[in-house]
Amino acid sequence: MLAAAVCAAASACAPGSGVAPAAVLPTTTTTTTAPAGSTPGPTELVVGIADHGAPRTLNPFLDGPDTGVLDLLGPAVLATGYDIDPATNEPVPDVLAEIPSVANGGIVVNDNGTMDVTVRVDPAATWADGTPMSGADLAFTIATVTDPSLPIRSDLRDRYAGIVAGSVRATGSQVTFRMKIDADVWLLFDVVLPAHEVGGGDFATDWDRELWVSGGPYVVADYQEGQYLVLERNDRYWKSDPSTGDALPSIDRLVVRFFEPGTTPDPRLLRAFETRDLDVVLTSFGAETRAGYEALASDGARITSLPGPAWEQINFQFGPSNRNPESLNRHLEYRRAVAHAIDRDRLAPQRGTTPLFSALARYAPALGSGAWERYDYDPQETASLLYSLGEDIGSDLFAGSGPRLVLTASGDSPATVALAGEVVVMLDEAGIGAELQLEGPSLFFGQTLDSGTWDVAAWKFAATPGRAGAVAFVEMFDPDGLPFVGDNFLRWGTVDSTVKDEATARYAEIVDELRRTIDPDEIDRLVAEAEELLAEQVVLLPLVVHEESGAVVWTDRVEGVGANPYQSELWDVETWRVPAG
Question: Which of 73, 102, 182, 261 is the most buried (most CB within 10 A)?
Fold first, then answer.
């Protein structure tokens, strides 16, 4: 689960040759239900994973190209400290006894900008070899992630960076430590390491093709790199069904087949599901992909999905290096004119996306205020704003006769390019002359974005869940932060910005206040105020929520599979069950 970040296109993944032939797959047992009064046989599901490709390592802590698929598989086999509730996007305890907070005593805020944190594991939590989980495991996890000699993935290392060296103490089932005030404390211990097995070896090499002892509902029984992963139920899994008291997981065996990224929709994946070689498919559902599976609904296929974390937006550059010497971005009336020229309802249907009027809604639904709803599609209002601005600056801006807007995007994301093209057409139709410039991803994300040489830019953000994600998003526009100190690629309110006023001064104060508080109510108030300022000042324009993420299943094979785009569709795999009857 990554921090709020610039999201480059996924097309950098090269198409592969597909899955392994069926002949090399392990022998499977397909018994699903037993006649009344008989003893049920072993149950098995075959799960197809698209979008990410096969992992080249089983170590989810290592930096590299495997993080997406390993994050997807993690809840089935790893000890995860928390889950993400798909309804609220907030963390809920898994192997942790509770999420630390001021209210439950897990966080004590100090006067010096630090806080003392206590984290406990659930007293029932047990590794698959029977060893109880403990505070020593939590302390070992911190030590591993913060070890500068290890190639730990950057998003994890950054999450633990605020922990004060030498402050970590493990006692029994808990660990205590001191760290700078940071809302990301809720997202520590995404994965917990078993100190008794992993400690003492070479973490970067010992656990490349082999996974340490499971702390989840399944254990790894067989792994064929690039082909499949076989998971069998963990007989020592410590959770039970709260309604029946039965031991979990309910399904005995999962065979996970990997499909390398290719065309969308992927005919290999759809065909494997259609012929029932797959019982479950985990994938993203754009309009075309969804149509292929919906055609199987009469045969018993069912799609469960929710809008994914990716959302498209455009934003304005306020720095001195703007490539468009005639840019009018400094004028609020102009930015509002652009906002009223864009019809989100017209943008959305072609790609199966939905209109977006609140950035914070992607991080925590309860925080979504619809702040951008004030900018409804209104070409007449665009014309009025342009006329008024033209009179103020002594220039005729009506009907595209004024300076042109230059919209830049990375050419490797077909969805973003299509959206940017439609935005340019809408702007032209509304009387704002516009042109589209496409760049390669290395130039756009490596130079253009950082140096601020663009005029108006389109790229997609990948939201991370909960308050921590909302805070990270707000901090990206900090007027006191510039790349590489911060992420204010727009230069809004910075020293050399064309816009530096009371709004930017207040925004900088909000960011400072957020960095000094851990109180959830205060965080909610501050991020809501920040979003209101971003919308009022038209610093950016959220446009659409990207394609949906979820699963498609054969309903006669499995039930209980739900979507969770901010974690993994396997987040509650232990509760999947065979349909009764």
Answer: 73
